[in-house]
Amino acid sequence: MKFADREDLLGAAMLSPALAYVILLVGVPFVLAILLSFSSATAGSLTFDWTGFRNYATILADPIFLRSLRNTAIVTIGSQVLVIVLATAAAQVFRAAFYGKRAARFVLLLPWAVPVSLAAIAWTWIFDSTFSVINWTLRVTGLLHGWLYWLGEPGLALGAIIIVQAWRIFPFATVIVLAGLSSIPQDVVEASIVDGAGFWRRLFRVELPLLLPVIAVAVLFGVVYTATDLGVVYILTGGGPANTTQVLPTLAFQRGVLGADLGQGAAIAVFLVPFLIVVAVLMLRIARRTEVGAGGRKSG
Amino acid sequence: MKRVALYAAALAFMAFAGFPFYWMFITAFKQNRDLYVGAFDTRHVPWIFNDPPTLEHVRVLFGQTDFLRWVANTLLVVVAVVVITVIIAVPAGYSLARLTGRWGERLGMGIFFTYLIPPTLLFIPLSRVISILGLQNSLGALILIYPTMTIPFCTWLVMGFLRSVPWEIEEQAMIDGYSRLAVILRVAPRLILPGILTVVVFTFTLVMQEFVYALTFISSVDRMTVSLGVPIALVRGDVYHWGSLMAAALFISIPLAIMYNLFIDRFIQGFTMGAVKG
C-alpha cells in the first residue's frame, strides 16, 4: 500500500508535531519542575545541585508557606461554593425566555471574557481604601457606620479575593450548567410535572441529580482556575498585607522568580499537583460514567 | 408575579456581572475632580457624572503611554501563535478524529489533560528553558510558550468538531479515486474551515488574556502585552492613573466580550467533553 493511503502512517505524521510540542514544552518542564524542587538551583547559574528534601523541609517550616497553602484552600473552596450557588440559580433564570435576554447574556459573559489582570485592576480600584464605591454605597444605605479597608485587612482581603474569583468563574459555570439543562430529557421533566412536583421539588429531586456530572465539570475547571491563579491575588493585594493573603502561585512567583530561588519556588508550586491530580481523576470518572450511563439515564 | 421575580433575578445577575464594567466606563470618562472625591463624602454620588464627561484620560492613554505599543505587541504575538496553533493543532485534531481509531481517542484525552497543567506550575522550569534559549525579555518567549496552552485545547476542539461532520463527503471523494492523502489535502480543509475559525478565536482570546507567562518572561515596558502592561506599567511611580487605566481595560474588554458571545457554544462543547450528551 502506498504511503498516501496508509491511514496509520498519515495519522502518526499529522499527530506527531502536536505531541512533540506538548511533550517538549509541557511534559519536560513538568518533570523539570519536580526535579528543580529537589535542587538548589538559582536563576543566575545553570547548575543543578541535588539537595534532597531540603527545599520541602524549609517551606514546611515556614509559616508564610503554610498560610499560603491554607489561603489557597480557603479561596478555592469559598469561591467554588459561591460559584455553584450562583451558577445553578443563574442557569434557572437564563433557561427561561424573557425580553432582552441576548443583552443580558452579553453582560453575564463579560467577566469571563475580560483578561484576568484587567478585571483584577478594576476590582482593585473598586476596593480602593479611600474611593471604594462599595463603602460609599454601604454608608449611604446605612449598612456601614465605620470603614472597610478591603485590601488592608487580612480577613477582608481574602473575602475580596473570593468575591473576585467567584465573579469571574460563575458565568462560565452558568453556561456549562445551561448546556447540561438543555440535555435533560424533556419527558423526565414533564413526567415530574404530571406527578405534581413543584418548582423546588423538580429542581432538587429531578434536575440537580441529573445535572450533577455537568456541575462537577464546571466546578473542576473552576478549582483549577482558582487554585492555580496568580493574577487576581498578585494585582489585588500582592500577597499583602504582610504576606497574609499569599496563595501558592504568588508565593512561588515571589520566591522562585523575583527571589531567584528556583528550587524553593518549584517546591511551592509542586503543592498544586495534588489539587490537579484529584481534578483529573474525577474528570475521567465523570467522562466515563456519562458514556456508560447515557443509555441508562433515559430509563431512569 | 413569576415574571417579576424572573426579571428581578436577571437584573441582579446582570448587575453583579456587569458592575465592574460600568465602573470602568464611568471612571474612564470622569473628570479628575469628579473622580477623586473620597467615599467618606456621602453627598457626592460616585455612581453618576457630577461634572460633564471628559476624553482627557483617553487622550492620555493614547498619547502619553505605551498602550498602542502594547496593542501592537499583543497583535504580533496573536498572529504568530494563531499560525503555529493552526498548523499544528488542526492536523492533529483531524488525525485523532479520522485516522487513529480507538487509541487516538485515549491519546486525545491525554493531550486535552495537559491543558489542565497550569502556567503557575510550569513558569519556573520554563523560565530556565527560556533563558537557555536566550529568549528572556522578548516576545519570542511568548510566541514559543503560548501554543502549549492553545494546541491541546484546539486539537480537542477540532477533533470534536470533525465528529459532527459526516464522513460521507470524504468517503465519496475516495470512491471517486482520491488517495487518502489527497482527501486530507483537498477535501478536508473545506470541511474543517468553521472549526479553524473557532481555533483562531480561541487563540486570540487566550493570548489577550494571558498574564502569568508575560509577567515571568517580559520585563521591559516596551515589550509588554496589554494584559501585562495595563495593570503593571500604567501605574507611574506609586500613582495610579485610574481614568486611563480603566479606559484601557474597557477598550480591551469590549471586543473580547463580543467574540465570546459569538463563539460561546463552540467553546462550551470543548469544555464539557463527554459530560453533556443527549
Provide a descriptive summary of the structure in words.
The complex is a heterodimer of chains A (300) and B (278). With 300 residues, chain A is mostly helical. Chain A contains 13 helices and no strands. In chain A, helix 7 (154-182) packs across helix 9, helix 9 (199-227) runs antiparallel to helix 13 (273-299) and helix 11 (248-258) packs antiparallel against helix 12 (262-270). The longest helix of chain A is centred in the N-terminal third of the chain and has 33 residues, at 63-95. The radius of gyration of chain A is 24 Å and the shape is flat. Chain A starts with 6 loop residues before the first helix and ends with a helix. Mean pLDDT of chain A is 87; it is low at 292-300. By secondary structure, chain B is mostly helical. Chain B has a two-stranded antiparallel ribbon. Classes of the chains: A mainly alpha (300), B mainly alpha (278).
Essential attributes:
heterodimer; A: 300 residues; mainly alpha; 13 helices; flat; disordered C terminus; B: 278 residues; two-stranded antiparallel ribbon; 75% helix
Radius of gyration of chain B: 23 Å
Strand content of chain B: under 5%
Report the average pLDDT across residues of chain A.
87
| Main beta sheet of chain A | none
- Distance from N terminus to C terminus of chain B (CA atoms, Å) equals 33 Å
Helix and strand content put the structural class of chain A at mainly alpha
Overall outline of chain A: flat
Radius of gyration of chain A, in Å, reads 24 Å
Report, as a whole number of angstroms, the end-to-end distance of chain A: 49 Å
Order of secondary-structure elements of chain B: HHHHHHHHHHHHEEH
Mean pLDDT of chain B: 88
Q: Please estimate the helix content of chain B.
A: over 70%
Q: Quick one: which chains have the greatest interface?
A: A-B, 114 and 106 residues
